[in-house]
Amino acid sequence: MKRTFPAAACLLLAAAPLAHADRADIKARQQIMKEWAGINKQMGRMIKSAQADKFPQTDFARLAAELKQTADEPWKHFTAGTQRRSDALETVWTQPAAFQAAVKDFTSAVNALDAAARSGGGLNAVKVPYEKMSQSCKACHKQFKD
Ligand code: HEC
Predict the structure, then answer these.
(1) Ligand 1 touching residue 33 (CB < 6 A)
(2) Spatial separation of the C-alpha atoms in residues 3 and 52, rounded to whole Å
(3) What is the CB neighbour count within 10 angstroms for residue 91?
């Protein structure tokens, strides 16, 4: 049976479509963030559940390296005009210096965590750097994410 949805059709017409490239940018940055959320969670679990002598140092270091490798990836996808239909706040574009500062905080926290994870210092070496890295995600979200 053929049906029509006039109300839905009106809505579609009312919302100007995003360009294909814009959708791709939104998807790309959200995808990376999702992967980071997974990494962050795994790291948190390792720290919480580990005894100091049984800390999975190699696995943790692998996750830290993964984070470091992708730490620069999302930012180029915050292209002009891609706020709509995303959870990014307008402040990303209206306060670019503050956004860059949050990016920088995150990047240095990730670098410090990666260095700590490779130091061979085990659980004690990564605890504080992990907290700092995790806090830098939250600090940015507070200012720039819905
Ligand atoms: C410099 C700012 C900044 C940093 C640092 C940052 N994020 Fe985000 N994050 C954002 C913004 C802005 C969005 C909204 C993106 C959108 O909807 O287009 C977002 C979205 C997300 C999302 C939702 C993705 C989705 O599916 O819509 C998750 C999950 C997330 N971030 C996790 C993290 C984690 C974990 C970290 C740290 C390891 C992190 N983010 C670091 C700014 C940041």
Answers:
(1) yes
(2) 63
(3) 14
- For ligand 1, atom 19, the nearest C-alpha belongs to 145
Contact between 136 and 105 (Cβ < 8 Å): yes
145 lines ligand 1 (CB under 6 A): yes
109: Cβ below 6 Å to ligand 1? Answer: no
pLDDT tier, 50 (very low <50, low <70, confident <90, very high otherwise)? confident
User: Does domain 21-144 bear CATH number 1.20.120.10?
Assistant: yes
Task: Give the angle 93-97-101 at the CA atoms, nearest 5°.
Answer: 115
Rounded to the nearest integer, the mean pLDDT of the chain is 91
Of all residues in the chain, the percent with pLDDT exceeding 90 is 79
Section 103-114 average pLDDT = 98
- Residue ID of nearest Cα to ligand 1 atom 4: 137
